[in-house]
């Protein structure tokens, strides 16, 4: 995969060429797209694509002790960028990220987008997450690519697009995870603080949405 924009690591190292100093000495304001996540996937057509999560407007913040969950983080507006992963690297799609109805997201470090076909249409899907304060759960949203490489939301029958899921403790921060598939159903694990235990939600994709949640204990 060939990157056509500077990664978050490059942004930190070469920040003077990409940012303006903000009002606080520890903050910098982004002026060029910065890649915070990337991944490779194959469309149902067989075309290989590269998918990027880019911050288009925002700040890189170094927090004071006790001020934030993260000692340093990127916060702002993001877009998805999809391009062919082989020369000539043509752009197939760009679009603003809307997460749980909002457009401002926070990530402390770069990460990898994890793909899987959850709705079984032959095209790749992926999760994007945000930290749920005071919980072992993360808040996630499901996205999919169509046969042309455009990205759209995957919905649930109750009308919600975001859902809670147990964070992967093998990763420092699970901002994109692979969810379990079992017998054609999507399985979502979450920690129920009220019942103090792990619960399992089971969904089947029907009529353009994930339907019929079944709740059980694990």
Provide an overview of this structure:
The chain has one helix and 17 strands. The chain has 218 residues and is mostly beta strands. The strands form three sheets. Strands 1, 2, 3, 4, 5, 6, 7 and 8 form an eight-stranded mixed sheet that branches. Strands 9, 10, 11, 12 and 13 form a five-stranded antiparallel sheet that branches. The radius of gyration is 18 Å and the shape is flat. 28% of the residues are buried. Residues 12-23 have low confidence and may be disordered.
Strands, helices and their partners?
Blueprint: H1 8-13, E1 19-21, E2 27-30, E3 34-42, E4 48-62, E5 72-84, E6 91-96, E7 104-107, E8 111-112, E9 115-116, E10 125-131, E11 137-145, E12 151-153, E13 162-166, E14 180-182, E15 185-192, E16 197-206, E17 209-217
Parallel strand pairs: 3-8
Antiparallel strand pairs: 1-2, 2-4, 3-4, 4-5, 5-6, 5-7, 9-10, 10-11, 11-12, 11-13, 14-15, 15-16, 16-17
- Count of β-strands: 17
Order of helices and strands: HEEEEEEEEEEEEEEEEE
Number of helical regions: 1
Structural class: mainly beta
β-strand percent reads over 45%
The percentage helix is under 10%
Distance between the termini: 39 Å
Instruction: Report Rg.
Output: 18 Å
Oligomer: single chain
Shape: flat
Main beta sheet, described? 8 strands, mixed
Low-pLDDT sequence parts: 12-23
Mean pLDDT: 85
What's this, in brief?
This protein is an all-beta fold. Helix content is about 5%, strand content about 50%.
